[in-house]
Amino acid sequence: MQAFANNLNQTTITDHLVDRCKQGDVRAFRELYNAYSAAMYNICLRMTGNVADAEDTLQEAFMQIFKNIERLESASSVTAWIKRIVVNHCLSRLRKKKVYFEEVDNIDVEEDRGAVDEDSFAWTVAAIKDAIHVLPQGYRTVLNLYIFEEYSHKEIAVMLDISESTVKTQYMRAKDKVRQIVKQKNVIR
Amino acid sequence: MPEKSFEDFISQHRPDFEEQGPGPGIWAQLEKELAPPKKGLVYMLGRHWLKAAAVLVLVVNSVMIFQFLQMKKAQHLENVSPELQDAKMYYTSQIEQRLTAIKAYPSSVVGLDSSARKELELRNETYQVLEAELIQNPGNERIKAAMIHYYQLKMDLLDKILDELHEKQPATQKQPNYEREI
């Protein structure tokens, strides 16, 4: 997770490039797009769950980024700014698809028990991706925002307009669900 | 083999969770939306367009005023007195013919000095004074009559000179038969 974050942060976006974008230089826009499109596309793909929605969302998000580049104060905050716009577009698309993020009761939520029974099977990238893909949309959104996009429970709560405890609960349930699915696949194999 | 926690596993294999980037079609669409309709003059001038427009207006105004004054000057006499303009055209033509005929004789035969020749020209000092007076007093019939009289006197004078020259040197060339019409 940290490796990916570092990789994105290493993207060289200078104040000069941002200034060129602010002047409407299309070549500068392209440089900005080239630097971020792959990472942002992956966010869209994880959040929306399919290629068509991911591409549409990416396009809309970048159009907004280009139109609002004037609001960006410096190159140092460009990564967080772009990422936030992309995530907001993803959430907006999900809401249009009638995905609601509702409060849940957290009585039966246990603390992370990942280490307890994980010696009985092996995680694999493909298995986790497949498991996340079949999660209910609400769980998937919370899990993606927390574990892949590295937002805190508090930040996610604000984004989804739900309580922080609900975010924690949904994350735990999502993780449990992923574990169950991966475990089942291990057994079947 | 025992595995690490869910979060640890993802952290360690984070790059493997990434898919390839989007296809080229996304940028193509964005570029299409970003492209300005066409770079017009105002776009190219950027923020200096207002200054450029002000300079352009000044230049156009200057040219227009200059052209207007030139046209007004040329048409002034015609506007002031259309009937005098007709007379002017007639006399000008007649006087020019006579002057051309006189110039055809050798200067030794003509025997006029430079100041006398200058006085014979159509637009001499008297003419310019009369024209200026007429422009300032467009309805003044006396000035109009004075101008006609000026033309007639000049034609008489030129005819006399031509007659004398013809007597002096009849074989030089055949002179036109000048007739007085006014």
Report the structural category of chain B. Answer: mainly alpha
Helix and strand element order of chain B? HHHHHHHHH
Major sheet attributes of chain B: none
Number of strands of chain A: 0
Uncertain segments of chain B: none
What are its keywords?
heterodimer; A: mainly alpha; Rna Polymerase Sigma Factor, Chain: A; Arc Repressor Mutant, subunit A; 2 domains; 10 helices; B: 182 residues; mainly alpha; 9 helices; rod-shaped; transcription regulation (chain A); DNA binding (chain A)
Please describe what this structure looks like.
Chain A is an all-alpha fold and 189 residues long. Chain A has 2 domains: 2-96, RNA polymerase sigma factor, region 2, helix turn helix motif (Rna Polymerase Sigma Factor, Chain: A); 114-188, Winged helix-like DNA-binding domain superfamily/Winged helix DNA-binding domain (Arc Repressor Mutant, subunit A), CATH 1.10.10. Chain A is 70% helix and 0% strand. Chain A has 10 helices and no strands. In chain A, helix 3 (26-48) runs antiparallel to helix 4, helix 3 packs across helix 5 (78-96) and helix 4 packs across helix 5. The longest helix of chain A has 25 residues, at 164-188. Chain A is elongated. Mean pLDDT of chain A is 84; it is low at 106-116. With 182 residues, chain B is an all-alpha fold. Chain B folds into 2 domains: 32-77; 81-182, no CATH class. Chain B has 9 helices and no strands. Chain B has helices at residues 6-12, 25-34, 41-45, 49-80, 82-103, 107-110, 114-120, 125-136, 141-168. In chain B, helix 4 (49-80) packs across helix 5 (82-103), helix 5 (82-103) runs parallel beside helix 9 (141-168) and helix 8 (125-136) packs antiparallel against helix 9 (141-168). Chain B is rod-shaped, with a radius of gyration of 42 Å. The termini of chain B are far apart. The chains are: A mainly alpha (189), B mainly alpha (182). Chain A: Residues 32-98 form the RNA polymerase sigma-70 region domain. Chain A: Keywords: DNA-binding, Sigma factor, Transcription, Transcription regulation. Chain A: Residues 127-177 form the RNA polymerase sigma factor 70 region 4 type domain. Chain A: One of its GO terms (biological process) is DNA-templated transcription initiation. Chain A: Belongs to the sigma-70 factor family. ECF subfamily.
